[in-house]
Amino acid sequence: MQVFQDTTKLIEESYEIKKQAMNQIKDAKAYSLIVNHSIAQKLADIITLA
């Protein structure tokens, strides 16, 4: 019974870690989109001013 409980706990912990990793990946993608957009905006401004 103890082994079963330990296994269940490990599965829950690994699921939680996976969930956090997925959230971090989502945040990273969102951040890179914002950065790319901001770079594109600066380039557009430079081209417009030139």
Task: Give a short overview.
By secondary structure, the chain is an all-alpha fold.
Query: What would the principal axes of the Cα set say about the shape?
Result: rod-shaped
User: The biggest beta sheet, please?
Assistant: none
Number of strands: 0
Distance between the termini: 73 Å
Give a description of the structure.
The protein has 50 residues and is mostly helical. It has a domain at 18-50. It has one helix at 2-49. It is rod-shaped and about 75 Å long.
Q: What order do the helices and strands come in, and which of them pair?
A:
Layout: H1 2-49
Which descriptors apply to this entry?
50 residues, 1 helix, mainly alpha, rod-shaped
